[in-house]
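Q: What structure does this chain adopt?
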Amino acid sequence: FAHAAEAYVKGKGAIQVSQLEVGDRVLAASTEGAPVSSEVIFVHDHKAPSSTVRVRVAGDVMELTPAHMVATFTAACGHGYCADAKLVPARLIRAGDRVYVSDGVTTGVQTVQGVEQAASKVRYVVTFHDNIVVNGVVAPVYSTAAHGLETLPFHLLHKAAPGVLQWTPIAQALDVILESPVLRAFEALVNAALSFQGPKVGVPLARVSAGPYMSV
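A:
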């Protein structure tokens, strides 16, 4: 996600993604779309600016990397998000596409008004529910077509020993790995291979501006 993107954090309100801290509880949702507060378990700031896609929806803008997944309208779900919502890379989103949003109580659908290319500093974020809502738009945390397999190692480590991802040796190792050109090349291969399959993966969501979230 671009550093300037906004998420809603319990006890802090709307803040930029660049200000998120491990342990924050961001507005997200269960697999049924109900609003929940989801723990941030890992963050990583990429050192160099990255190519991004700015998706304009309902007067707001969600900015993320081209391979980042977006939950799109699926007939099986209708106008309310469900676990069958199809995930599409941001680079394939076009004006007129419909994406899932939520007001923090119910989910809905909004039409993409425009898409443009950009470049920004970005941050990789992993949450307990594998999703976060930025600028009111559904935002799974997946930055590749591997979906849940991408974040599984983070969840396993966090579950085995909460806080282990922040231990200095592990944090330093992850920093090296996530900045590695080899990893980026591997991610490109994964995206290319899995893009032919078009898997449907559910991602819970909610909306940044949700008032009811204050009591979650």
